[in-house]
Amino acid sequence: MTMSTTLPSRPLDVAPPSTVIAPVVPPRSTLRPLGLGEVRITGGFWGERQRVNAAHTLAHILDRLESEGWLPNFDLAAAGGLPEGRRGREFSDSEIYKFLEAAAWEIGRSDDADLERTFRAVVARVAAAQEDDGYLNTEFGRPGQQPRWSDLEWGHELYCLGHLFQAAVARERTRPGADDGLLTIARRAADLVCDVFGPDGIPAFCGHPEIETALAELSRLTGEPRYGRQAALFVSRRGHETLRDIEWGRTYFQDDVPVRDAEALSGHAVRANYLAAGAVDVAVDSGDDALLDSLRRQWGRTRGRRTYITGGQGSHHQDEAFGVDWELPPDRAYSETCAGIASVMFSWRLLLNDGDASYADLIERTLYNVVATSPAADGRSFFYANTLHQRVPGVVADPEGTSPRASSSLRAPWFEVSCCPPNVARTLASLDAYVATADADGIQLHQYAPAEIRTVLDDGRPVSLDVETVYPADGTIRVTVNDDSAGEWTLSLRVPQWAEGAHVAIRSGGELVDTHAVAPGIARVRRAFRTGDVVELELPMAPRVVAPDPRIDAVRGCIAVERGPEVLALESADVSGVDDVGDVCLVGEPAPFERDGRVWIRVGHRVVPTETWPYRESTAPEVADADAVPLVAYHDWGNRGPSTMRVWIPTS
């Protein structure tokens, strides 16, 4: 294999557990996250996306925050120019905070001096807009604007502050004690929230969950228990019909059923996942095992009955919401990018608490087939929604324009609601922290990328590992141990659910000492490792045919093709003489094969009767011009101009 050797400039530190540089650092958990000071992605699939994110996406986002007027809103607030000059939706403040969070993680990765100067300049503009009592929002509270906290259903005030708090956490963890003032800004706002919404305050919450996770993590960072208690209070208040009803019902913002009584995630998919992630934080910090059990069940049913094959979630366009069980139409899939990111947040928290590989499996599926799908190769345009069946060719977006969000088309540079681009940016910038964990017995690898790992076990023993792989191009993951170990410890490698027939080989001193098959789940290698020992996991990467559960009516009679963690798609750019991939079907048994670095299947053109009535006696369709055509990785579709596409391919 050809291995990447491209490294960021920042050297790795061997960080003790108390200084983990990661978005989620629970005070107690089965697995301890290894953060940016302990893990560094050095290349490969995700390394390239991190490079593009740093080199292009962050600057693109900042340019749009300026040109759209969303960042200048803070200047207007400081100068007393609101509300007349304000631009953007009521939640546009949050995009500045997500940019700051992404920049903070990227500065932690790369020590980028220019980005550091930009970060400080943006923080200064935010600070100037904060009011004396800590309130910070450009849409509410000033003469000519709605009063503070007057529209909790739609106003997003607390949602915006949640993203501010997460930016402050990222900054303090990557640059402890930085003098830019962001943490002070966040704490002043958090103190106000606790005063206004505490046990004796307004007995309500934000229509868009997000502040719950942020308050929990801010509490963990600062040691201030008041913030954690407020997060718990927000979680417990939901589900009692507190907010005003709307046309889609209170399910939209999860105010119909108490969190601990819910059976699955429902309503707006981003909100539901953010709330679930925050509820896990609250349950872990408070030791609420009953709440944790409920969230595990909700995760299981949501994954098993309300999640697309891509890992995407949300099948309704009108309310960006989950459908009922098995309601997963591919052509109407909303599958918002932000919902995928929020799903990763929920799954990661459960993984840290439980150590169950199934959570990491869903994270992997979602990362490769939702998060990686959104940005274009140049990092300057994005999918907002992620359909699984594009019936008509998309429209090339105006590179200087701002696009509506809901319609699935080609990637666009910016949206009227642009939550997804900065959300992708902060996720990619912090992705090193989702690769590996540690516990009292050893190290666990959950996601596979070329990486350096330098950490210490709970008993203080240092561990140094190098991971070499070109995954998912092939399935070999080679882990080299760089130092002798004082006694035995366990290296655990996730074997994805799809990886039947995986093998592990162990080499020491250049000699093969063991090789054996491993089942999906976790492969554990325990030994007193010596310098140069190699553990090699071989995952089977032959393309697989996947059939849907028969209860998913919308894709009954279809199949999909996967290879490794990637879902594949049929795109019209690869089918000669076809504009609409809906006009083709499989020919014969679905038997995908690999050729010229791509996966191929045999399809034929359906001969469609000319009559206008579309219903007739059941007969086998006539198929002509059968031929082998290549499939494209779903995350790469739409990169060759307008096209039609489908993931689920009909068998007749």
Task: Summarize the structure in words.
There is one protein chain. The protein has 652 residues and is of the alpha+beta class. It is built from 13 helices and 23 strands. The protein has helices spanning 44-67, 72-79, 93-110, 113-129, 157-174, 182-197, 211-222, 225-237, 269-286, 289-305, 337-354, 357-371, 420-429, and strands spanning 32-33, 39-41, 389-390, 436-439, 442-445, 451-456, 462-468, 476-481, 489-495, 502-508, 511-518, 521-527, 534-538, 544-546, 558-563, 566-571, 584-586, 593-595, 598-607, 622-630, 632-633, 645-646, 649-650. The strands form four sheets. The protein has a seven-stranded antiparallel β-sheet with strand order 2-6-7-8-13-10-11. Strands 3, 14, 15, 16, 21, 22 and 23 form a seven-stranded antiparallel β-sheet that branches. The chain has a five-stranded mixed β-sheet with strand order 1-4-5-9-12, with helices on one face. β4 and β5 (442-445) form a beta hairpin. α3 runs antiparallel to α4 (113-129) and α5 (157-174) packs antiparallel against α6 (182-197). The chain starts with 31 loop residues before the first strand and ends with a strand.
